Each structure stands twice: as C-alpha cells, then as structure tokens.
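Appendix B. Raw example, untouched.
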Amino acid sequence: MTDSSNRSEGRLRASVGRVSASWREVWSLIRSHGPSQVQFWFIALILGSAAGIAAIGFRAGVETLQAALYGTDDVAMLHSFAASLPWYWLLCLPVIGGLTVGLLLDRFTEDARVRSVAEVIEGAALREGRVERKRGLISALASMITLSTGGSTGREGPVVHLASVLATYVSSWIRADGITGRDLLGCAVAAAVSASFNAPIAGALFALEVVLRHFAVHAFAPIAIASVAGTVLGRLVWGDVTEFTLPDKNALAFYVELPAFVLLGLLCGLVAVALMRSIFWADDLANAVQARLSLPRWLRPMATGLILGMIAIFFPHIIGVGYETTSAALQGSLAFDLAVIFVVIKVAAVAITMAGRMGGGIFSPSLMIGALTGLAFGTVATAIAPEFSGEGTLYALAGMAAVAAAVLGAPISTTLIVFELTGDWQTGLAVMVAVSLASAVASRLVQRSFFLTQLARRGVHLAAGPQAWLLGTIRVETVMRATGAPRAAPEDACREMIAEGVFVQSGATLEQAMPLFETVQRPFVPVVRFGPEDEAPELWGALFQVDALRAVNRALTRMAAEEHS
C-alpha cells in the first residue's frame, strides 16, 4: 500500500513537473518571439475578462459610494433624491470630494492632471500601446471620487484608461512589440466599454475607431473575443437589460420628416462644438486664475467642487453621469424650457468639472446633452408640422447619438452604442442622418474630436495622420551615422557647423531635426551630446537627410502594413 502510494505520488509530481516545464517553455517563447495567433486569442480572452471585471468594479464602486454619501438605495434616481437633501450637504459633498481628488493628484502625479481617453489614444499612436500605469490607477481612483461626490462627468473615460493600464502590464510581461501592444490595448478597451454599457458590438468598434484609429482585420478577432468576454461578465452582474427604456412608439411618420433630422444634425454639431470649446475655454481660464493667484494645485479641484455644489443646490441634475435626466428626455417627460435650461447648465457643469481637473469622461455628459437638445428640437419640429411628424422622442434619441458622435469623433461606434443602450434598431435612418451631419460640422470646427483636440493643445498632433506625427517617434540617435563609422560625415565640416550653432542634440527626434535641412541646405546635420555646463558639446555623429527620409518611409510602410493586415 505504501509503495503504491509512493508511486502515485511520484507520477503526480512528474505530471506537475511536465506541465510546469511546458508552461515555462510556452511563456519563454511568448516573451522572446511573441504569441502565436491562438495564444494571442487566449491572452485576449483573459485580458478582456480582467478589463471587464475592472469596469464592473469601477461602476460598482461609484454606485456604492453614491448610495452611501447621498443616502439612497436607488442611484438611478439620484437626481430626484438629491433634490430633497439639505442644501448644505449638496454644497459640502463636492468640496470634500474635490479636496480629496486634489490631494491625490498633487501627491502622486507630476502635473496634477487626470489621465483619460486622450492618453490612451496617445499611447496607441506613440508608445507602442502603453500608458502610464501608476498615474493611471491614481486617475481611476480620483475619477471614482469625483463621480461619487457630485462631479459632472462620465465613467467611460476612467474605465477605458483603467483597462489600458491592465493591457500595459500584459504588454510589459510578454515584451510585446508595437503591433501586439496596440492590439492588446484595443482588446482591453473593447472589453471595458462592453462591460460598462452592455454593448459588445459598439465596444469592439470603439476600440478600433477611437483608440487604434484603424480597422485592421488581424485585430478584429481578438478584440471581438475580448469584447464578448467583457459583455458576458457585465450581463452576469447587471443583467441583460438596456441602459435606457424608450416609448413603444418611436418611428418616423414618413420619409418627408428626414429633412428635420438634417437640421437636427447641424444643430447637434454646433452644440457639440460649444461643449468642447467651453471645456477648453474653462481650462484656459482656470489656468490663468491659478497662475495669477499662485494657488496650490490641490486647491483647484476643491474650488471646483464649491462651484459645482452651489449649482447642484438649484440643479441636482448635474450630479454624476446624468442617466436619470437622459432617460427623462428619451421618454419625452421634460418640457421645452426645462430641456434648454438643462443643456446650458450641464454644459457649464461639465466644463467646470473638467477645467477643475476633477476627472471623469465626456461620453455620458454628451449623451445627456444630446438627448436634451434633440427633445427640445423635436418639441418645436412636431409642433410646426404635426401631420408629417412621428414621436418627438425620436428626436431625443437621434440628438443623443449625434452630439456624442461629434464629441468622440466616432460616428460608427457611437451610432451602434446608442442602439445597444436603448435596444431600438428601428430608427436607423433618422439617427444616421443626424449623426453624419453633426460629425461633419464638428470635425470642421475642432481637430476631429474632443480627444484629438485635447492632445493638439498639448502639442501632440495626431489628427493629421501618421505622416504628421511619426517624425516624433523616431529618435535621431537611431538613424544617425556615428563619428568614425563608414560613410560618416567629415568631422571638420561638422565642427564648423557646431561653431555656427547648427546642430541637433542626441535625444531629439526627427520632428525637431528635419526643419534644419531646409535651413542649412546641407545633406547632413551634426549630432552632439552635452556634458557639464562648462564643457563644449561633444560631436557624436551626423544625421543625413537621406537616412532620415528612409527611416520615415520604413515607419510609414510598417504603419500601412499594420492598418491593412
């Protein structure tokens, strides 16, 4: 009996050892050569599940904190409940939240700024699918506090960045190259959006259209797998229900009504631009005030919370993501004047929250503002021509999609996510007309989307395409010919140019170096390294224009191959 037990134990240990050795071999191959297609799909499934859990956890955290802080069991009716609370609680809660956010960001970030979708897009384009990890986690916590204490933003921005942090960890573990890193980023984003909004189709397309900004065939399968994983987890927790409920009758009365949706699309495009520019204007104003008064960084969110609290005393509808008010607009239960007032107040509240560096996303506010805009327009349109008009709530649905699409710069995924949020697929013509016109108008007045305009304001220009930003990803030292190398530039000529002040530093990129060729009219530019302050710059090599152009061409070729693979 003992010998038999020993033999069984030995066989078990041998089996465990073989499995462990096989796993180590597979892991070593993945880290050294990258995952195979089947392995990558498996990784996408795991990452999608993790991102889905993160999104569910973030939403549950916000709702739990809201319920505790506002004293309600039904956060879906938070606005109505908040109206019955004492005014001093509505005033103090955002101040406390703002102070907490300010201290967090001041302590753990170098610029006291919350990371969101714009940084994810930047990571996909310029950082091989990586985002900041520590600051990303702090940003998610700050956004959770903001949404729970009266901030007027949405949850999709922090959820997308939180999922991207998980993708970054995985990319680092397997030493993923740029293509694999971007695909992992897309998987995480798709799963997070799908789990958060119960929208698997839109989640996958959002990752491709907004974050990766291309529709590569090779990326679709793993992103779809991750999106489905996130959706399944979300439905297990929240149920298979749509976010909004629409009236039973919600269809076009006749095709002659379509021109009204053309006008609605134009109006929604202008409203979207007003929302985006209000945020940027408020941010510039807050920067100027902070600099003028020499205010500490942690005080800015706190002061913002005070302003939001004063608004919430009279308009509790600005609190949080605003789904109760959005649902009321889609149900047609708001009067024209209230819809217009709520649009103005919500735009102001969102601009104040974001300018105050409190964190959160822009998607949910744009849904609310769009639904209110559509309802107000529909009230007028159906009153002018009732014999040719369908339900006024259809305008709210189309307006919701149109403003959100224009803000995100994502007409395809936004149209689909609105359909999935509402479960209404019968109104496609009206929604598509409004979305296309709103997107066309807004893209002419901003740099294609809110996120790309955010990046452009920081000097990161991605809207013009890879030919504009790829130069900034190629470092001079990777392209230059070192001193003493074959076909190196003559040292005497290089030193003469350095004496004239014509050179480029070794840490520079081609974006900084290429304009010099137009200025000096030489085939090369010296590359130098700086030592201590009292030492002259050290000649390290030379950048030849032909080498730089070849490097750019190779980068463009790789980018095109990735996008069309």
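End of appendix B.
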